[in-house]
């Protein structure tokens, strides 16, 4: 992590086959294109180091950016994986033209702006551990199979009678695969995250799948502030005001898979976890709609889990 003021910043627009590198200090239109593979990563690292780039911004693009981010981090170059919503708003303030080269230069200027932030160290990309990657892969595959099983169950109501047995066999097969994966998830969770998993599972509603999701897909849990963790998950209401007009605060963005899992845990917690249940009943008593009350309980549950992980102490 850098200890001196940043002079040069880079931005990389990543696509499936190629990526385009822009550097803030170079000529306005000068960019460099590389192939999105390990050889291209090495060329990019050499190019960035040649121009003494200390910070690079990539946009989150559904995982395409991760291999490059890991390579840059491993080479000692600080990386931010930015929310496309935020970079898009920044881009609109710069130019209405959109090309890969323009996007790369825009990300470089965005990096220059981010470098001035006091909380920069908390924004930098940290690669997950091998254990976190494996656990996330197991969870992702389970979620895929659950979606496939749901589709087959829906199809069962519409399929011709001659094909009912085939669909039922597929449902049974998918159920067996899901059961096997859940056992693997539990074993991996206990082997690599045993103490942490047992700690947060002390909350009623937080089971194996919830703890595995939080530990693999929300590694910041216990390491950042309550406001930051709520924003990462997407359960923090963002106020919106213009002059004397105040709009309704809304929650948006965040990690959808984590938020969905947290929601399911909260639905159980409002029934069986005393502190969450009391808070939920208090909100309903004040006339809050169900969705508002549940979201507030999700926020509270996440805050409690964050504090537990930070202090390594179970809920009193």
Automatic annotation (TrEMBL):
GO terms for biological process: DNA transposition. Residues 197-281 form the Transposase IS116/IS110/IS902 C-terminal domain. Residues 11-159 form the Transposase IS110-like N-terminal domain. One of its GO terms (molecular function) is DNA binding. It comes from the Bacteria. The keyword Coiled coil applies. Keywords: Coiled coil. Residues 164-191 form a coiled coil. This is Transposase. It comes from Alysiella filiformis DSM 16848.
